[in-house]
Amino acid sequence: MQDAYSRQDVAKLWTLATPEMAGYIQEELNDNTSRGVVNKLSNVSLNQGDLAEAWREGATDYATVAMRFAITDVMLDKATGKVVEGDPTKIEEATELWTFRRDQGGSWKISAIQQA
Fold this sequence. Notes:
Blueprint: H1 2-6, H2 10-16, H3 19-34, E1 37-57, E2 60-77, E3 83-85, E4 92-103, E5 109-115
Antiparallel strand pairs: 1-2, 2-3, 2-4, 4-5
Helix pairs in contact: 2-3
């Protein structure tokens, strides 16, 4: 997911996320484009992942995973490649809650991401 986001691979994002989530991410990418910036993510490494909760609603399964990961997150000027936000030499740690959804035994897709 992080790789597809960083590469602005909208088609890939639509295969990994629910339509609602993919639409939200695409809007964010479009906003970045209109501002002339691109968000580059690198050095992504999962440090810990814990199942926070899982449930079923009808034929749909949900699972929320608390993920602690390392990442380098910078915003670049699209025209010049210059850093406008973040530090390309710094690996930061982040914790997020990712909720996955699976309809009738199908593939798991990301349906929500929350900062923790």
